Give the backbone structure.
Amino acid sequence: MSGTNPLMQEATKNADDDIGSTETSAVNTNTQYTNYHWRHALISFGLLWLVALVLYWETAASIVAIWIRSETYAHGFLIVPISVYLVWQRRKQLRQMVPVPNLMALPVLAVSLLLWLAAWVAEVQLIQQLVFVSLIPILVVLLLGSAVARAMMFPLGYLIFAVPFGEFLVAPLQDQTAWFAVQALILSGIPVYWEGLYLTIPGGNFVVAEGCSGIRYLIASIALSSIYAYMTYRSYWKRTGFILLGIIVPIVANGIRAFSIVMIAYLSDMRIATGVDHILYGWVFFGIVMLLLFWFGSFWREEPIDDSSVLKKPQAGTVVPSSKNNYQMIIASTFAIIFLASGTYASSLLSASSAVTGQEVRLELPKSSGVWTGPTASDDAWQPSYIGADKTVYQQYQNQAETVYFYVAYYGNQDNGKELVGSLNRVYDQEQWRRVQDNSVSVIMPSGKNVAVAETDIRSADKRRIVWHWYNINGAVTASRVMAKMLESWERLRNHKVDAMLVVVARDYTIDPQEARNDLRNFLENVGADIVVVNENVGTEEVSIVAPDQQ
């Protein structure tokens, strides 16, 4: 005889209900625990980020100022909202994770702020901005933990596009664009005369200006292709491959754009694509290229994975005491505030110790020697464009009918906006002159020492000129912008006082630039470039000589 005992059925049912109730209660407890720590972690993160904004507001303001000033970096206003949206998309995954502070991020924070301080001393704004933006992922790791940071890795990494960088690519992109356009014109059978960034075809002349370098297209393409790859592909090799295409395609496309502009102007007898319309044409062309790139990439689209379906659900009965988590959060927040405050405090101390107020100096150029006479005041309109120099001198030397122009810009108390090495400084006025090409040459000073100088071949409407320049930092000479910044940083830490100068010599030429180079070599070998800086604020005249021969 078989059957089921009703009492046993009811007991089993009650036991199952009790188990289900227990599991539900445990899950609810875990959920409450998770929500509790998320609230505390997000509040701590918000307060720390507010502290960072207040303490490093000058760096933050410099980023926004470039977004406003430059069309190339106007996309920066969209980066933070995009990153926030991408994090919001992962909210299902993040809700199932418990934020646990990672104190191992404190040394990383300390090193980053030391790097910011070094960049502040050297007045390298780009490094300061990079460190400032990197504070966001560092604070995420510190307060929310490594696991949470990994879940937000791309949105956090995408913040790099908020930093306005890439100016160093302008010159090589100009050269590449000019080369590509010339080669395409040759293949098309159109006669072309090419000199640096200048192209001459029957009917007209063209110059590949900085705005034609394609830097705007390149940066925009990398930013767009990165987010497209992240949202379209799951495999890292596909993402990497598409981003590489986003780098290569706009460079090639910009060369095609430049060639097309010249071709359209040539075919229309210089009536089309020679004015402002070529800019509009460029953006339309870029938009079509990006649409084609995205269309091409769509053939390898991968369906996104639902984050919530691949993660383990919180296990019942695994509630972790919150006291340890709270203790770590307090430690992390306290040390983070100390480190953040220490960076700006150290910079204020260095600023106070190196500040020079009311300094008046006089610059004396080298005396004439050999066949060279001078210096005399120059009536030439050319002058380098160096912003915020404390003192400038522009004179010239004569050798029979040949003239060498000599320019010095002196910086005794540098600050943001008045730096010897800055992205806006040029050895020529861009309104009147165009760069043809850059070189590096070695010259011999009267002492017999070799000095490396940077050469820039420039052209105006009626002149061609070879310009040599170098930097002089407390007597140490370099033609490298990076080395000049490093020397300034070292001297500022070592001596607090930095005498920094740009020294420029230039000479015109008609056809062969070698003629100008020969005269410049002869001038430096005989006259040299010893600059006397006279401090006129002291009771008795104090003279310090900073020259290439003292390196």
Summary: The two ends are 110 Å apart (CA to CA). The chain has a mean pLDDT of 81. The CA atoms of residues 154 and 406 lie 51 Å apart. Residues 6-55 form the longest helix (50 residues).
